[in-house]
Recover the amino acids of this structure.
């Protein structure tokens, strides 16, 4: 049949932020996609496939949330370009589904009118009717449809109500293009739209009492309070960090014992030789040492998902606006920067919701200094060593807090300097606009999907890039072989030993020997590699039980000495090492994303050069200054 | 007749040196009379349209107001561009 060979029709979903557009996209396409409870989660055009009730295929495009089509913001430009077919690979949509929050019609209809004025076929998805009805709003979808002259489908996308009805509306023949009922010649278009919307809402969405106070308002009286709001904010953030560092210990023990068991099984079942060494030291040691941090990453993303979907994240941005303005940024920069604590890549991508171009550039420049989760393995290795303690005490939590605070404060200082140098924004001054979504029970399904995606991405990375690097490192430190019996001599003879000897003069002023320098060098592709590199370089073997592996590595490190017998890792060296990891930009994917988002490789290259140099100089100052002070 | 009347009221209000949203007290119900300033288009996109009723919920460097059932946080600079009148 000819119909089956036709390219599928293209349906674009368009709506204000927080209108439930992405939830609807997931309901239509069955794709698992990120849905957050704050404006600006959709920063790219996403695509999926859906079928009409008659089995015809449709390409569904999820456009970024926007308030208007005036194209002031990057998100709005993307949406407008997509509607006009100006994005390569995306034809002009055959039909636009305007998604509106039924409890917010007065605000969301502005965009709908603009789309109808474009002269494209429109179907209106009247989403969140349950929320509207609970707030006492009396909706009249029939009136709405008559006045706007488009099909209106009342629905509740999160409960999948009305999705079938919407699918039925997405079929050929497409609804006719309507002439805007509000247009008349003469008066100002903006006034006409406003008056039309007011009239329409009087008819089709009557509010019983506009000023009704909700439970969210009662909560906000405390959570946005100038004093109690901050107390709550600090408690929430500290609780998040503390839970990550304490609860993660239990599953980490399981992973470590499993790893020890596997290593022991192979060691007992295989004859001694290069292959056994490769599997036990290279593969299991390298990947296992990284996989062990999976529980922490899962917990961090769990809490970020929890804060996002419960609505607290927007309040945090509100509170942080005052602090951010001292760094020359607005509260909107809080979200990208906070996301960067998990990973700088989504953080950099989330800067698209920042209105000012200069503020965006500054935010993505400093984002990598928000200590990301990839640094955690390094911190977890070093901090207990610094305090001469086993893992998991409150003192370590305090040190970690200081590490995070140091990175954050430096980022703010740099942001302020950079913001000053870039000059003020043309036009308007300090802008802060944020929608505070109502508090709601966390959507566990969303949180679990979100956590699963991140965890999988991390494991895949550990399984490919890090495995490859571990094997490479193992080979470099094993070959060429020497006849010497002692481990240290064999290492000095190997390729890695030689690289270490070459870079030793460069890292010695920071207090590191060639091996540590090599481990730092290998972590420029991804920071997590540092631990496995150290394990390989210091020949730390797999333990049989829980914390034995990391303890072994720590024992090896603290026993390591310079050729003259001085201990290699003094407290000062460890602090210097921490400083390197706080400041160095050791993540290739981040640089790639920054280059794309800033629209210039120079910005990314400058960021990389600046951060690497800063890390080196900061560690130099710490180590040499500390030595002068007699540490 | 309706537009004429509201236009006359708007002129009166301007003559009376109207209050801005940042000046009204917390908990007050007000109606937006007009928007004036560099950011008024963006404010309109967000729903701060003439004739709408809003309630101010908190003040400070950024203030929160209830507008059509949503809570919006805006900066003082933006609130200064929103001229309002008290609702009887």
């Amino acid at each position: 049949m000819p119909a089956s060979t036709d390219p599928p029709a293209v349906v674009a979903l368009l709506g204000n932020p927080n209108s439930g557009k992405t939830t609807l996209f997931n309901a239509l396409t069955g794709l698992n996609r990120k849905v957050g409870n704050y404006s600006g989660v959709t920063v790219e055009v996403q695509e999926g496939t859906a079928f009409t009730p008659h089995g015809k295929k449709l390409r569904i495009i999820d456009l970024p949330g926007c308030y208007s089509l005036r194209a002031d913001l990057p998100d709005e430009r993307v949406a407008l370009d997509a509607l006009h077919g100006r994005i390569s690979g995306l034809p002009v949509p055959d039909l636009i589904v305007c998604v509106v929050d039924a409890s917010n019609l007065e605000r969301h209809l502005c965009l709908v009118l603009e789309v109808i004025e474009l002269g494209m076929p429109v179907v209106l998805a009247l989403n969140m009717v349950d929320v509207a009805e609970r707030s006492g709003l009396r909706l009249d979808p029939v009136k709405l449809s008559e006045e706007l002259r488009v099909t209106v489908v009342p629905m509740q996308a999160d409960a999948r109500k009305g999705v079938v009805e919407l699918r039925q509306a997405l079929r050929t023949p497409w609804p006719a293009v309507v002439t805007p009922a509000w247009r008349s010649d003469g008066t100002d278009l903006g006034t006409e739209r406003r008056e039309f919307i007011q009239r329409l809402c009087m008819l089709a969405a009557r509010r019983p009492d506009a000023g009704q106070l909700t439970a969210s308002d009662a909560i906000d009286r405390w959570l946005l309070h100038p004093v109690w709001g901050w107390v709550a904010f600090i408690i929430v953030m500290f609780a998040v960090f503390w839970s990550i560092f304490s609860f993660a210990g239990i599953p980490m023990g399981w992973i470590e014992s499993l790893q020890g068991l596997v290593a022991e099984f192979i060691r007992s079942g295989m004859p001694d030789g290069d292959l056994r060494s490769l599997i036990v030291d290279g593969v299991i040691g390298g990947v296992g040492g990284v996989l062990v941090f999976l529980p922490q990453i899962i917990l961090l993303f769990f809490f970020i998902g929890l804060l996002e979907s419960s609505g607290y994240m927007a309040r945090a941005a509100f509170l942080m606006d005052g602090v951010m303005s001292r760094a020359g940024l607005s509260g909107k920069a809080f979200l990208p920067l906070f996301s960067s604590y998990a990973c700088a890549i989504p953080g950099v991508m989330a800067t698209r919701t920042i209105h000012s171009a200069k503020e965006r550039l500054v935010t993505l420049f400093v984002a990598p200094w928000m200590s990301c989760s990839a640094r955690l393995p390094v911190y977890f290795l070093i901090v207990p060593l610094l305090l001469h303690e086993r893992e998991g005490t409150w003192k370590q939590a305090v040190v970690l807090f200081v590490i995070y605070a140091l990175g954050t404060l430096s980022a703010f200082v740099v942001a302020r300097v950079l913001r000053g140098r870039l000059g003020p924004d043309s036009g308007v001054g300090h802008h802060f606009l944020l929608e505070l979504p109502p508090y709601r029970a966390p959507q566990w399904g969303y949180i679990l999907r979100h956590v699963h995606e991140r965890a999988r991405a991390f494991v895949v990375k550990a399984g490919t890039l890090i495995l490859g690097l571990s094997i490479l490192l193992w080979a470099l430190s094993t070959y060429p072989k020497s006849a010497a019996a002692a481990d240290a001599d064999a290492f000095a003879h190997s390729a890695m030993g030689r690289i270490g000897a070459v870079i030793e003069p460069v890292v010695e002023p920071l207090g590191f020997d060639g091996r540590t320098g090599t481990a730092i060098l290998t972590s420029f592709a991804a920071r997590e590699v540092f631990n496995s590199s150290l394990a390989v370089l210091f020949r730390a073997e797999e333990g049989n039980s829980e914390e034995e592996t990391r303890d072994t590595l720590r024992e090896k490190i603290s026993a390591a000495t310079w050729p003259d017998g001085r201990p290699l890792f003094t407290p000062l060296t460890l602090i210097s090492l921490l400083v390197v990891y706080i400041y160095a930009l050791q993540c290739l994917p981040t640089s790639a994303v920054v280059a794309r988002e800033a629209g210039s490789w120079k910005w990314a290259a400058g960021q990389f050069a600046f951060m690497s140099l800063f890390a080196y100089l900061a560690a130099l100052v710490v180590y040499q200054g500390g030595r002068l002070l007699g540490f | 007749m309706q537009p004429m009347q509201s236009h006359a009221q708007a002129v009166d209000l301007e003559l009376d040196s109207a209050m801005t949203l940042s000046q009204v007290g917390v908990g007050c119900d007000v109606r937006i009379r007009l928007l004036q300033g560099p950011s008024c288009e963006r404010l309109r996109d967000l729903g701060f349209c003439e004739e709408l009723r809003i309630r101010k919920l908190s003040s400070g460097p950024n203030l929160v107001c209830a507008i059509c059932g949503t809570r919006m946080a805006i900066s003082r600079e933006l609130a200064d561009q929103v001229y309002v009148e008290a609702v009887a």
